[in-house]
Amino acid sequence: MSLRVGRIEYANCVPLFKAFDALCDKDHRFVDGVPAILNAMLSLGEIDLSPSSSIAYGKDPNRYWLLPGLSISATGPVRSVLLFTRQPLEELDGATIGLTNESDTSVALLKIILGKFLAFKNSFQRTDALPQQADSAFGALLLIGNQAMRMSMTVSDYHVYDLGELWHRFTGLPFVYALWVVNRQSVAGQEDSVIDLARTLQQAKVACRDRLPLYVKGSGLEWYGFDNLISYWQTISYDLGELEMEGLRTFYRYSYELGIIEQLPEIVFFPGAISGGSF
After folding, report:
1. What functional role does this protein have (predicted)?
2. Pick the CATH number of 4-74+175-257 from 3.90.550.10, 3.30.9.10, 3.40.50.10610, 3.40.190.10
3. CATH says 81-171 is which class?
4. How much is the pTM?
5. Exposure check for the chain: N or C terminus, fewer CB within 10 A?
């Protein structure tokens, strides 16, 4: 029986999955989707594990385990989680903010930046609109992933704020956008397969660092430009070390204080993990 593995359809995951595909000799079933869709499928047990929004684990930790040593993180600017606005950030107090439908972690991060760090009072509304379409309804618009990257290349008359940069400015910590999350119930009886997959992911996150130029051609991301794409991939970390863990716990603490999550989650790794973040 093969594992059902979620695969995020964003540029930040391309190197890891390319390296994983080259190293893995197992016949896993991959399910592509944006974070919000994969989060829902993981919760329902329709997939077994996935790189999933870090807030998804925080909202329901008893349903999941985490794979140690693995994340999608960045220290400082991430370039794919962006707030577009015609006003300077300091003038957004009281504004209605349009939110992407594709992510929950980035939405929580924005609420922390505005509500916790800047003490703003904002209202929020989900939307599929792009900045030019949203001008009449929203003071600012949050976009993520490939859509945010494309839009950042085409708009010149907007203020564009990188949420990773703002988080780092206020905390000095990396931000953990996604974790490798395992549905406890759906992997029952497949524990050895999970451990094997996690071991291959650990190998892939190391192997991909030296192969980034090889991944550009055929990635479907050539529109971003070769140098831009390599630079972008170099900002992404697949590690979950001490600093990332500190950033994750800080994110959960602020999310709890703002009522985004109901309790501070205990971070529990998949049984069989060896201390130090490896299998």
Report:
1. Catalyzes the dehydration of chorismate into 3-[(1-carboxyvinyl)oxy]benzoate, a step in the biosynthesis of menaquinone (MK, vitamin K2).
2. 3.40.190.10
3. alpha beta
4. 0.94
5. N
